[in-house]
Amino acid sequence: WGLLLLAAALGGTAATRCPAPCVCDNLRAHVLCLNGSLVAIPDTIPELTKKLDLRGNSFTVIPAGAFLATPYLTHLDLQHCKVERLEEGAFRGLGRLVYLNLASNSIALLYQESLDGLSSLQQLILEGNRIEEIQPGAFGHLGSLTVLDLRANALVYLPDMVFQGLQVLRWLRLSHNALHVLGSEAFAALPALRRLSLDHNELQALPGEALARLDGATRLDLGHNPITYVAEEALAMASLRHLFLDHASLQDVAPDAFARSPQLRMLDLRENQLQGLPPLAGAGGLARVSLGGNPLLCSCLLRPFHNWLARARVQAEGACAAPPALRGRPLDSLKPPEMRCNRLRPPSSPPPPPQQPRAAGSRQCPRGCVCSPDFHHGSCENRDLREIPRHFPGDTRLLDLRRNTFSTVPPDAFPGLKELVSLHLQRCGIRALQPGALRGLESLVYLYLTDNRLSTLAAAAFEGAPQLAYLDLDHNAFTRVPAGAFQLLPNLISLHLQHNAIGELAEGDLAGAKGLRWLYLAGNAISHIAPAALAPTKMLEKLQLEGNHLVEVPTAALRGLPTLSELKLSRNPIKRMGDGVFLPVASSLQHLYLDNMGLEQISPGAFAGLGPKIRSLYLESNKMSNIPNMSNFTGLEILNLQDVPFHCDCQLLPLRRWINKLNLRVGATCGSPAEARGLKVKLSTTFQNCPGWGQGEAGEANPEKTKAASKSSKKKRSGKPPARGFSKSRT
Length: 731
Known about the structure:
Layout: H1 2-10, H2 12-16, E1 23-25, E2 30-32, E3 51-53, E4 61-62, E5 75-77, E6 85-86, E7 99-101, E8 109-110, E9 123-125, E10 133-134, E11 147-149, E12 157-158, E13 171-173, E14 181-182, E15 195-197, H3 208-211, E16 219-221, E17 229-230, E18 242-244, E19 252-253, E20 266-268, E21 288-290, E22 296-297, H4 303-312, E23 315-317, E24 320-322, E25 370-372, E26 377-379, E27 398-400, E28 408-409, E29 422-424, E30 432-433, E31 446-448, E32 470-472, E33 494-496, E34 504-505, E35 518-520, E36 528-529, E37 542-544, E38 566-568, E39 576-577, E40 591-593, E41 601-602, E42 616-618, E43 638-640, E44 645-647, H5 653-661, E45 669-672, H6 703-717, H7 726-730
Parallel strand pairs: 2-3, 3-5, 4-6, 5-7, 7-9, 8-10, 9-11, 11-13, 12-14, 13-15, 15-16, 16-18, 17-19, 18-20, 20-21, 21-23, 22-24, 26-27, 27-29, 28-30, 29-31, 31-32, 32-33, 33-35, 34-36, 35-37, 37-38, 38-40, 39-41, 40-42, 42-43, 44-45
Antiparallel strand pairs: 1-2, 25-26
């Protein structure tokens, strides 16, 4: 930062071209515009810039051609910029870019041309968005990509050929999604892949057919999935060396489960439900098996496995859970005579999951539409249709009917589409979804009804679509949540009702939504949430209420939400916060948004119960002059205090000391008194007259500050007055 400030101060003519509030290092061609109030990409960034850091701004949309003025960029960071949409061609012209970070935004969908123009890109970070679906072809222009990070999104399904074009990709990160359906050809176009991370998803069986396409992969992470059984020859990966199946729900593994993975060396089966294992004779190259945290029954039933370990010279980690005489004994310390049976019956193994026959599907296609047999797509987008067409191929999995004029969706509108997973009906002028409209869509996971004219929904409209997990009803005409409409959707995970005209959330509105994890209600007119309104959604993780009419934190409604990790209350007219308003979710909350509310007062106990679990806290653009003690917020990664008029007097000294210790840019600025207005809280000299000033002000991480404080202390001991302007000299 010293170099950057020096470049900004001494950069001459070039520095004057640096857009406010950015800092330009013209020598290294770096531009930083961090944690500012930018709402559009600056068009005055120097043309020769190579590295552009725009973290912490508010762009919402990245428009087409946004970076045409900076064609020499090699690194672009857009983390925490509240981006919701990438327009087609957003990055066109960035043919030299090798690193793009879009983490921690609100991107929901990747279209085919969203990433066009990035032919040299090597690393793409999309972690922590809310991507629910990726259209095949979205990565088709990224022929140089080696790392693709899609962690912590909302993916449920991966269609066939979704990663087509990624010929040199080496690491694909899909952890912390909700994946439970993988197309058999989902990974078919990844010849160079070496590592695949699928941990922390909802896979109930080993996706052997999809994984068999990865001949070159050497590491596979499948931990933290509810997989109960690994069947015979379930995994056929010729180069696999490291397999992680830890923290799953495994009860049994077939003897030949890994026979078609001959290079397997390390197998991690920790923290499962295994009472024992058969000899894994098919895994001839295995060197290590980790079994810690399993309820191993060290009886005669485990002898064959134990003998195999010795013969094959495989190292095993784990300890006996039973019988009592052997509890806690490491496996490698046992001797065969100690492993007795005492007439114990072997535990029954669950049968392997039945294989479902795949429908072949015919190749017909409605007139005026396009059907892709490779991607199993059907598209009639923007064809001025007045009725929903029929006779799509039976194996169609994605159907795009956007921008037509249907008015109503009649009963049995999609016959013969039992394999359909994703249905797009955005901007179709739909006023009614009639009972039975989705009947027969037994595999449907995604339903997009954005930008229509729906004002009501009946539960019968969803009859016959029990797998529906993502329902997008943004930008419709709802004045209230359609009560009881979700009774037939036991697998609903994500519900979008943003930008409607909903005035309240009443008890019973969400009845039946027992598995709901993400609820998006931003941009409505909600002024009241009944105490029991959220009671059915006990698994809720994200609640987004920004841009409504709430005048207080809905504390009572937050009770009974033990897994809530993200709460957005931004842009609600909440002026005061009383004590303990977040106590019901204090044990789980990680991300809290309280920005742009006109907040005037936060009581000292408002954040009671919150602490080390909080990772991000947004308080920018409010009106309070002080905030409560947050010294126990030790896990903070993001703290935004910009545009808050802090009164920089002695009462603020604890806050000044605390933020001085944080390794974060918080943006805290003095609003008063007059002599401090506009100064950073860290740099204000108004604190030097406060009792206790100088105790701890030496700056633990700043040797210059320590030296200055030491000199000041010596002058005090010699009877001389302390030097004034301490913060100025540091500046």
